[in-house]
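Q: Structure for this?
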Amino acid sequence: MPEPANPTGPAPAMTPTPPTRAAGGVGTPPLGTGGVGSSPARPDAEAKVNGAFDYASDLSFPGMLWGHTLRSPHPRARIRSIDTTAAQAIPGVEAVLTAADVPGKLHYGLIEDDQPVLSLGEVNYQGEPVAIVAAGSLDVARRAAELIEVDYELLEPRCDPEDALEAGSFFRYQPVRLGDPDAQVPAAVVAREYVVGMQDQAPLGPESGAAVPTADGGVELYVATQWVHSDLEQIAPCLGLEPDRIHIAIAGIGGAFGAREDLSVQVHMAMLALATGRPVKMMYDRAESFVGHVHRHPARMRYEHAADADGKLLYVKARIVLDGGAYASTTEAVVGNAASLAVGPYEVEHVSVDAWGARTNNPPCGAMRGFGGVQTCFAYESQMDALAEALGLSPVEFRRRNAVAQGSKLITGQIVDAYDPERADDGRPFSPLADMLGRFKEIPVPAVPAGRDIVDLPGGTGNTTHGEGVRRGVGYGVGLKNVCYSEGFDDYSTASVRVERVDGQTVAFVHTAAAEVGQGHWSLQAQIARTELGVDRVELLPNDTKAGSAGSSSASRQSYMTGGAVKAACEAVRELLRDRDLADGPVEATRVFRHRETKPMDPVTGQGESHVQLALCVHRATVDVDIELGLVKVVDLTCVQDVGKIMNPAALEGQIHGGTAQGLGLAVMEEMITEQGRVRNASFTDYLIPTILDMPPMRLRIVENADPEAPYGLRGAGEPPTLSSTPAIVAAIRDATGLALTQIPVRPEHLTAHLGRQP
Amino acid sequence: MTAPAAAPPFHRPGDLGEALRLLAAHPEAVPVAGGTDLMVAVNYRLTRPAAMLDLTRIGELRAWSDAGDAIRIGSGVPYTRIVAELATVLPGLAAAARTVGSPQIRNRGTLGGNLATASPAGDGHPPLLATGADIEIASTRGTRTVPVAAFFTGPKRSVLQPGELITSVIVPKAAGPQQFLKVGTRNAMVIAVCSLAVALDLETRRLGTGIGSAGPTPLTAPEADLIELPWTRPGLFNDALAEEFGRRVAAAARPIDDVRGTAAYRRHALAVCAARALRRVWTAAHGTESTR
């Protein structure tokens, strides 16, 4: 193996994954502490704070080349020819590759293999990779890419998802049918259309990795990814290599949020490394990152909600159109979530849902925190508010009357279970949601303080208001998110635990392939090992393909799944230690953990127990709106979330804060703007994400309704806050302005257009 | 990161004279101080300077001085210092400086760079227009002074000629209340959707206005500046007057639709901001009772 190029660097590049070393090991909390339920210092904390953490973008190898991707500037075109002569003539250029050079399979994909490794004569979105270059420096590689002559025949892009549906161009159609909505006689009906813009995960770490050719003709990959084994399954056929010739280790990840589920640099840098026989690094810049990963599906949704005179939901009809963009990615699963969670955590017996994932020439969309639950949550929560108003009920009371309870059925027929069956409200089945809604009474809405600084007001340092035009509003949002993979997917995780004596100390070594994406999963593994084995010192081994698959750090599943696998492996080791002595040598066990089986959704009725676990989160937002300028300041976000079991208080709070902030971003600022398939704002100058002045301090109430099926009773916690914060904030803006607001992000002009004061 | 094959020359003059000689000899060299605009453009490969001229070692560009009726601000003074040191004497400019980027950007970014980039959205420009500041430009041929209103010639274009360097900005001291308002879709660290500066001169009884991000260049609003204010009976100031001022400011704008906002919203927001700004400066000058 080559030595790292920069020996003075903080950690050797060949072992990019164990920041456990960089941070001095994880086995350092005081004796007898640091187990489940505590918040030991994260193994990566110190390095991340002082700048020493090795992100994938910091990888460096001796003799390393830089790879760069030439991408299509057009959303749809036929490629007549590609001439690489001029690019190859530049000194320092070592390889220029096109589709003709792909060694194996020409396509890959997470669910469906439809994404070309490099364009095969046709491009279907702006940013589709066309050719790749390796050169001695990134600058030279970029210049060479500019000299590749691609002769495009421009074609009319299809950018309207409705046009796509009409033409039969879609990835999935999933209906849900229950009862007979058309036969009902409602007391109140609300019908509205909702629009959700295209949100980006905006991870601060750009796509990055390095590929190093090995002596046996294989390749080692170091890459920031959410699931190495899924990467391996997709990469190997494209490279025409047996999987055992490829080793993948996770390099330091600078945020993921779903953006690292699909492949980005992986096959390209491996192709360049194999072609040149040298290590090749790729690292997107911010503009390329915005087109180099999938986004959250934009949505157009028509909802009709009806209630009877008692304030009970009578029926819900919904037509949900998600734009999947040019390639499949995970659209199929996202549509499943949108359909099955289309009504949220409310009881209703008559339902008609039609959910589509359209195929267009817009940027491909796929996984992002909330995964199909976010779009519909904005719509159904907005509908719940509108219907409550039509009935003369408070938003909280109307939700309480319709909240699912123990034994309730979701619209798919899935029984709401795993809530504490011992508890009941006045003899009725226990409703965790009703309980959570009730807890806001204990936390009053903040009062308007006297003498505020401009940073506390809408517009912030822009000094736009000193109180002029400011109105306060309060709103609620409830989100229901499935945890783990759904619809019959064989979802599992693998963990190996070895206990041995090292320097007179008992040390537990934990080996998994689970991705630490910032959520705190490394800490959690160590905590579980300490609790289960009674050891103080835990060492985490690199997360790589030498371990069995851990599944993806997605779907709020890693605490449940890899946490469950580590727990099972620890229990096995404990069992072995009953008749073994560590003095005789290490004791090791590997365990595979699976959650209970799920069922596919019926293609006609949508019925089926498609989800593993359901997690609830409720937000109450308080906003100040400058109603003349349309500027919003969120002044308070109070959150009640059911997590089953608090595994690590600090990490949990971080997840809730982060998920909430991402939902705030979607509510008031985050949108990838496209125009006929072209992205208009691929930069942090114009794709705005919340700053500390946009995100208020939060008040949290954590509820622990244990799920008896899950390890420690835990419930996935990372995604639910992303669902509920958005509708809560928009509801609060509606409360302040009196406007209907059916489109997110809410832009200033949406709040002022009615004023008609434009001269 | 591996260095580019041929790094462009990076000139590091120690004083202004040397800088001007280098610039005369290498007119292709792009001056750089904070680099907060230039290096972003380089990273995005929007520009590839053939050479660069580092201004950070030139002490005289990094100082400000009291010039009697005005403050002479070296073109290399970062925004952080304008906020910290000039807020009393140049409140409008300091308020604008406070809205530039993040603290890190304000530590590096300079007024001279803002002018040289000549973005219609530059935060520093509206208060300079409202106060009638002058730009001092030097070259080996000599020094010339350009009123800020004549400085901008188009989007990201100015009167600066090859070989010329902005050395200082001469800003009249505030002779009355000043306001700067910047509309953005985020509560900090945002490019202006539109911005507005107003300066009330109590001695000359004149009003000055500067508009940002609502036209091909930063704009003045001469018709708005001429609005008749009740100087002799300040209590007669009313909402109708403030709104008329807002209408005139909006009429002076020449906004477009872009990803940051619509032209219609920009005009509307400028009208609101202008009315608020005028109320605030009048109130500050004449007391609170007269404003409603």
